[in-house]
Amino acid sequence: METLPLLLTLAAAASVYLxxxxxxxxxxxxxxxxxxxxxxxxxxxxxxKIHDWIAGNLRATGGVGTYQTCTIAxxxxxxxxxxxxxxxxxxxxxxxxxxxxxxxxxxxxWQTAFHDLLGQGxxxxxxxxxxxxxxxxxxxxxxxxLRQAMARWVSQTIKNRLWSILDKxxxxxxxxxxxxxxxxxxxxxxxxxxxxxxxxTLSPEMPENPFAAAFDTATxxxxxxxxxPGFLWRVEKLLGIGAEKRLKKSxxxxxxxxxxxxxxxxxxxxxxxxxxxxxxxxxxxxHFPISVLQRIALNFVLAGRDTSSVALSWFFWLVMNHPEVExxxxxxxxTILTETPEDVSYIVHEEWxxxxxxxSYSRVGSVSRHSRVSGVCLARLCIARCLQETTSRKSWVGxxxxxxxxILSVLGLRLAAxxx
Length: 420
Known about the structure:
With 420 residues, this protein is mainly α. The chain folds into two domains: 132 residues, no CATH class; 173 residues, CATH 1.10.630.10. Helix content is 63%, strand content 5%. Strands 1-2-4-3 form a four-stranded mixed sheet. α10 crosses α11 and α13 crosses α15. The longest helix is centred in the C-terminal third of the chain and has 31 residues. Keywords: Heme, Iron, Membrane, Metal-binding, Monooxygenase, Oxidoreductase, Transmembrane, Transmembrane helix. GO terms for molecular function: heme binding; iron ion binding; monooxygenase activity; oxidoreductase activity, acting on paired donors, with incorporation or reduction of molecular oxygen. Its cofactor is heme.
């Protein structure tokens, strides 16, 4: 008899919860939601094709050729109410990254997870710390000396190493992993541009560079912190096991390499980014300490390595599969360089190809932001009601650029008309 009131209470609570869940689920657009676990089972099942899964959910929310928004319920992972809002609506993206940029910082969870690798670098900072790095980088990348240094590094690496490897492959008739070659190419270039030190990973011997390997390991281990609940990686870090153990060892290699690069630049300043940031001051008017300079440099290495190599890989893959476009690009380049070798600004097809590439195969699959101020939502810019239900509650917002390949008609077909 004593258990009867308890059972009735539990039944009433379960009924209230299920009613609340039913009413809530009707408002959400996105993957299927189950009581208690939300969309976690589907997230786990699609973890190896996460961007395709998100793209499918976004496409399912609207008609062909539209940019949509959906909400993914991730209890225990997404903070606050457990909602993660994903959008690829251009107005929403502009709202988050430009119009109300100050309201969508990286967020404490993101910054904590990436702090060991990126510190207070441009990819892991907000406010004045981010702004001073952004302004410095934007200014320096427009200076003539840095552009000349960039051209020098790229030209030397392509002529002296990449071409020799490809020529040897043609002469001896063996295949090469083009994506690996381009990854090595961009890594050597960005390292030279950032701190004036060439790791020479692109060479006929194809050596394994300790710094490059450690950087890869550290990046992979850091990304795992985002994919799983925060307490898991904190326990691993405390116990020194699993991915956190690999992260610690790889960071030791990375920091040693960066210390040597910084010491070299102190003795012999150059025109690279590290030398330029060593002359700058932080928000308090002090020169950046060595630990901050390390992370600033690593942020630029991360920015210029994978993104460029992935874009180049997709570019050559697309050109290989469209020989008619390849022929027009070659013809046009040859014509322009013959008539005006100093001016390539009139090349149409070579400009068109990267545009289609950018719209079809994004170099960065998604960007995560944290809604800081309660009451500011994206619903005013988009018809999706789920945005008002989530972003007005200080939740996570994901900007997914990967699904844009599904709407090639918005840009690609229009540009394709120029080629035909």
